[in-house]
Amino acid sequence: MQLLLGNEALARGAIDAGLSAAYAYPGTPSTEITEYLIQSHEAARGDLICRWTANEKTALEAAIGASYAGVRAMASMKHVGLNVAADPFVNAAIAGANGGLLIAVADDPSMHSSQNEQDSRLFTDIALMPCIEPADQQEAYLAPSAAFDLSETHSIPVLVRLTTRLCHSRATIETGESRSRNPVRLPGDPRRYILLPAIARKSYERLLERQPSLISASEESPFNRYFEGPDTSLGIIACGLAYTHLMEVLDEPSEHPILKIGQYPLPEALIERMVETCERILVIEEGYPYVEAKLRGIPTRPHPIVHGRLSRHLPRTGELTPESVAEALELPRPAPAKASSTPAPRPPALCPGCPHIDTSKLLKDALAAYPDEGKIFSDIGCYTLAALPPYSVIDTCVEMGASITMAKGASQAGLHPVLALIGDSTFTHSGMTGLLDCINEHADVTVVIVDNLTTAMTGGQPSSGNTRLVSICTGLGVDPDHVHVIEPLSVNHETNLALLRREIEHNGPSVVISQRECIQTARRRARRTREEGAEQ
Amino acid sequence: MKRDLILAGVGGQGLLALAAVIGEAARSLGLYVKQAEVHGMAQRGGVVQSHLRYSDLPVHSPLVSTSRVDLVLALEPMEALRYLSYLAPEGVVITNSAPFVNIPEYPDEATVRQELEAIEKGYLVDAVALAKEAGALQAANMVMLGAGSSILALGDEALTTAIRTFFAGKPEAVIETNLTAYRLGAEAVASA
Question: What would the pLDDT profile of A348-370 be if each residue is shown by its tens digit?
């Protein structure tokens, strides 16, 4: 028995199911899938290709290529990363899979570390792609094997949907036999990967024709189970992790029929059985009211009554808890003990010694000359914490890469001065193309790249453009006279400030790379060196 | 045998290590374990907590329920107060007494202490002093592990073996420091 995070269980399951190639861009709560793979014996032995990529789109495309070559492949990302990879996601379903293709996506209900709580199951409707949603760590371990089988049998990629609490909770799991990896083997019909309209139309028809067999697969799937119950005044549908909350609050075997859902498209026959026998159905699902909305229909069916998040029997937003599930079932619960009103909120903060602290002070002082006028369009990373006191220096944070392009739009609309603040990893993820636009349009934007030489917020994964940011910027076409590297330290503050002010006044794109290693990775490196020294 | 715990602290205090050691000890005894953690941005000096559940019967939800928690084990006093509504009627609160003040609105320290002292089954442990005595400030989390050990009900052997497993590969001196911290924490509560 091993004690593994849901993410680690999925990764272990993928290796044991014959995974050959895995690609990912880090993002909470998905990061530990790939961390586990990279640290595995299989990767060390060279049996498994495992890479952090520039972004989620390049990750998924590499996985599609590996699947084309016949091996089992996986791309992993957080839910908003799937937006970045939406183009390959939808079109891979049309092209189909050769080697099993698994796309692991971690949704973040309650937005613990994200800007929204979008539900990746909705993407499967656009792509007509099947989805497996494990309820617990054991199912997370079993999901890749099932996903690869489904993928290879039906020639289609499969989404495996996880949610934060499953990703980031550990449980004891039992591992099974491992199976061999696929040899390289070209697709039988290689032209199906050429999505010219004439071919794509046929592929789309084939994808539609495959749907009934995918529904049958769901009906027979071990991830979907129907439990009979004598009291049909209520039937309960519980999807994914929600099933564990349901089991938690039911002290005794349920009087009511229960349908546990863990594989989509929805198992229609099982749902029909519940619809025909029950007077009311309660749908418990993490994320959007996806199943509930489908069951309600428009106009709302009079029978059975469907309840869930839409009907507010469960909260419309945020992750489920045993309490919210118990309340929806009207189960008696002990009153909570008395809470204390003393604790103050303790938001995350930049670490003491963090280079972003010095850059934030620099930006604050540089913009002091333009009260209310200067705007800083920021991006996703630790430096987003510069939104909080004592810095309160950034004005926006919308999505990965948006800093540079939003700054350009705002500048062209008439704002001045306009700065973009972006991390090194976010810059190579999706900032470079925006900078190219700035150059081509001679946009008056000052881009500050906070380069801490790592992808810090997710725990220090390698940064794609490490040590090459100057050549990337000049290569794209920024005037070399307006590309600078500064070191954010308080002793350099006045010099850095003068330089930044000059570049703000420069009419045209300029790049200031504020470069100093993340204090966390620096400390970890120092500790390792110290311990290695002590060993000798 | 069943325990529902909340581990509470601030990012950077070694809460995940504490959770990992308890989880490993429970696993080594053949118990069912579920343990929810906080990863990502919150680890940067923000609120960090872990829900830890183990039992000889299968554990379903990764989250503990309100009014069902046997022990709130806290690395920071204000953080201990944050979870009082989860406590079972017989629930115990064991907390490090040293405040970690990294926010301007940190409440009056005397008020925090009074509230903690008013808890019927509450224990305050000076984990910082004991960790220093053991040899390293970073071992405060293992002091608190020792302080909670009697309520954890996993036995000294499973817990100390789990400490060795967690720090495997580290120099022996690091392991010894953490084992000493554990022992000092256990003694502090036993003599309270």
Answer: 889 999 999 999 999 999 999 99
Q: Single out the residue of A2, A39, A165, A11 nearest to residue B23, CA to CA.
A: A2
Residues of A in contact with B40 (CB under 8 A): 28-29, 112-113, 457-458
Spatial contact of A234 and A279, defined as CB atoms under 8 Å apart: yes
Average the pLDDT over A259-266 and give the result. 98
Mutate: best of B65, B79, B115, partner A, most A CBs <10 A? B65
Q: Best residue in B63, B92, B176 to probe A by mutation, most A CBs within 10 Å?
A: B63
pLDDT band at A251 (very low <50, low <70, confident <90, very high): confident
CATH number for A355-521: choose from 3.40.50.970, 3.40.50.80, 3.40.50.1100, 3.40.630.10. 3.40.50.970
A248: tokens are 């938690």
Whether domain A225-328 has CATH 3.40.50.920: the reply is: yes
The candidate with the shortest Cα–Cα distance to A510, out of A426, A411, A430, is A411
Q: How far is B129 from chain A (nearest CA, A)?
A: 23
Whether A168 sits inside 8 A of B10 (CB atoms) is: no
* Degrees to nearest 5, angle at CA B25 with B24 and B28: 85
Q: Rounded mean pLDDT of A191-209?
A: 97
According to DSSP, residue B86 is labeled: G
ipTM: 0.95
Report chain A residues whose CB lies below 8 A from the CB of B92.
none
Pick the CATH number of B2-190 from 3.40.50.300, 3.30.1360.130, 3.40.920.10, 1.20.1250.20: 3.40.920.10
| pLDDT of A535 | 60
